[in-house]
Structure formats: C-alpha cells, structure tokens
Design goal:
Blueprint: E1 9-15, E2 29-35, H1 38-51, E3 55-58, E4 64-66, E5 71-77, H2 79-91, E6 102-108, H3 113-122, E7 125-126, H4 138-144, E8 147-148, E9 151-152, E10 157-163, E11 169-173, E12 179-180, E13 183-184, E14 190-200, H5 203-220, H6 240-246, E15 253-254, E16 257-259, E17 267-269, H7 275-293, E18 302-304, H8 306-310, H9 312-316
Helix pairs in contact: 3-5
The protein binds uridine-diphosphate-2(N-acetylglucosaminyl) butyric acid (EPU).
C-alpha cells in the first residue's frame, strides 16, 4: 500500500489484536505495524493524524480491552526497536552519575517491565522492586505511571525520549515530566526510551525485596487469571476494590466475565467470554457501587474500538485513549 512508502516498517493488515492482550478478548486491528526506527514511528503517527486514522501503541496489552469488533485504525508495536535495546543493555555497562551509589539504566519502551525489574534487582540495581507483579512494558509504565502501594514507576524516571504529539523526537527531563496517579504527560505521545535512576544495593537484599512484593501481590490478587489488572481507579482516599466488595459484587457474572472473589477490582474472563461481557459487567459494577455508596467509579483500563464509543457511560467514566 502506497501509504506506507518510504517507511522502515513491517505492516500486517487485519492483524489479531485481542490475543495480544492479557484479557485475550476482542477483534483484529485494521493494521498492525512494527517500525524499525524512531523516525518511521513518528511518520506513521503524523500520517495517521493527518488522515484522521486512530492510532495506538500496544505494549503487552496488560491494561487494554479490545472491542469484539476490533480496532479500526493503526496499532504500533515497538518490539523491533527492543531487539536493539537488549543488545545495547549487554554491550553498555550502566553509566555512573555524580552520586557514586547511583546508576543510570537505559530501557527501551517495549522491554518487559517485570523482566527489567527482576534483572535490575538481581544485579543489585535498586529502585524497581516495586514493579514486581506488574505486567506490561516500560513504555506503558511511563504513560500509566504504573505502581501501587510500594511505589510508582515515575519515582525513578530520570528522562524520557519520546515522539510528542507534534511528531517531534524529543527528550523530556525529569522536571518536564508530570507523573500523577496512573497518569503522566507522556499520554498521547510515543515513548521509545527511558533513563532510570537506580541505586546500588546488595543484590541478595534487592532480589529478596522484589520476591517479597511479588509474593504479597500473588496472595492478594488473582494474577494467574485473564484480566486487565484493576478495572477502576481508586477514588481519592478510598479503595475501589473495597467499595465493590462492600456492595456485594464479588462473583457477579455477565456471560463469560465475572468479578474476582479474591480482589473485587479485578474482572476475570474465561475462554468463551466476549469483550462485551466485560463492558456490560463494568457498567453493572459502576451502577451498583453508585447506588450503594453514592460514588461513581472511573475506569483505569483503556478500551479500544467501537465499544468505548457505543457505551457512552464507559466513555464518560474516563476511558483515556478513545
Ligand atoms: N479490599 C477489600 N476487598 C477487595 C479488595 C480489597 O476489602 O476485594 C481492601 C483490602 O483489604 C485493603 C484495601 O481494600 O484494605 C486496599 O486493597 P489493596 O491493598 O489490594 O489495594 P488497592 O487499592 O485495591 C492498589 C492498586 C493495585 C496495586 C495494589 C497494591 C489501584 C486501582 N490498584 O490496589 O494496582 O497492585 O494497590 O499496591 O490503584 C492495577 O493498577 O492494575 C493494580 C492491580
């Protein structure tokens, strides 16, 4: 197709998309593309914007629900840049900044967050242990400011290399980054590389902290099941899971999707589930929590495709990215 001319990119039309997410639900992407350099990623973004074609970046799909109809736009996967990253990681010893105990680790966007966190902990590079048990990629972790009780990704970010919404390849230093609760000002941009400020610690102690956090999460959350992690954001000072639990919604089911009995802010899906079952269940939970507590929950996950638009209530609830 002429549209892709001059770009260093692999393209697949009608590419399976839902199965690339943790929910493993939903239809195909009209186009899935793998840019092999940053300039091509920027060009795809600009061309898509010019033509009014929706586009997204897909990491591990840990926080995404794709509509059953699929996503009628361009989905960018940055894995082909990651191969370089792995090479770079092996070749390049971490640089030592002014603080002798400090260490800068460079991570490209599509690297697996858990693997990075585990590898750093093993090497005694402390600061990322709190990412134990959080699925996803480094790029997703920047955009979402991934985290929880033990810390957030933004805490260790030194700088972010990204393609901004005008298509410029720029670096945002720490003081130009804004990290909030599950949000950052990298949303709407394409993150492709991050410098992390870690510090040296005893490798055994660091790895032990990583494992302790992972164990604590496994004990509380249904991590082995198909889900997108927590569905709703915590309202200020409150826990969405607790509110859902108190409204008596554990095990509530719609089709092949149900509210986890272990942690009520998780919706789980069985293999026969449809994305629409999850969308319906989100609405049921939201309506009942509002009736019970007078609090309207906002979704934390991204919904891709027509379901987000069709379900006005879901969109109103704060679906970023639609
Ligand atoms: N609780 C219940 N019932 C439930 C779930 C929780 O009573 O079904 C209670 C817990 O007993 C606890 C309180 O609610 O007293 C808070 O629960 P938890 O410690 O599990 O934390 P959370 O606020 O529900 C947040 C993040 C998680 C993160 C954990 C641990 C959000 C929406 N969730 O959960 O992040 O793993 O803290 O750090 O911010 C995610 O973002 O996908 C995610 C799973």
């Amino acid at each position: 197709m002429d549209w892709w001319n001059g770009l260093k990119i692999r393209v697949q039309a009608d590419a399976p998309l839902g199965e690339r997410t943790w929910f493993r639900l939903g239809g195909p992407a009209r186009w899935m593309v793998w840019p092999t350099d940053v300039e091509s990623a920027a060009a795809v973004m600009l061309r898509a914007e010019e033509c009014g074609i929706p586009w997204r970046v897909l990491g591990r799909g840990a926080n995404v629900l794709v509509a059953d109809e699929g996503f009628d736009g361009i989905v960018m996967v940055l894995d082909d840049l990651a191969e370089r990253e792995d090479t770079e990681w092996r070749k390049r010893p971490p640089s030592t900044p002014a603080d002798p105990a400090g260490v800068t680790v460079t991570a490209y966007a599509s690297i697996d967050l858990m693997k990075l966190s585990h590898r750093c902990s093993q090497g005694g590079f402390a600061g990322l242990e709190c990412m134990a048990g959080i699925p996803g990629t480094v790029g997703g972790a920047v955009c979402m400011n991934a985290g929880g009780r033990w810390g957030a990704f933004g805490d260790v970010v030194q700088s972010v290399d990204l393609i901004d919404s005008a298509g410029r390849v720029i670096r945002r230093n720490r003081d130009e980054m804004e990290f909030g609760y599950r949000s950052s000002n990298a949303r709407g941009c394409i993150v492709w590389r991050v410098d992390l400020e870690l510090h040296r610690d005893d490798p055994e102690a660091t790895l032990a902290r990583f494992h302790d956090i992972w164990k604590a999460k496994k004990a509380e959350q249904p991590m082995a099941d198909r889900s997108a992690g927590c569905i709703f954001k915590n309202p200020p000072g409150l826990s969405a899971g607790k509110l859902i639990d108190e409204a008596g919604l554990k095990d509530t089911r719609r089709g092949g999707a149900w509210v986890s009995s272990r942690h009520a802010n998780f919706i789980l899906a069985e293999s026969t589930a449809k994305a629409n079952d999850v969308v319906e269940l989100i609405e049921v939970v939201r309506t009942r929590v509002e009736a019970h507590h007078g609090i309207r929950l906002q979704t934390e996950i991204d919904l891709w495709g027509p379901a987000a638009i069709a379900s006005a209530s879901v969109t109103k609830g704060g679906m970023v990215g639609e």
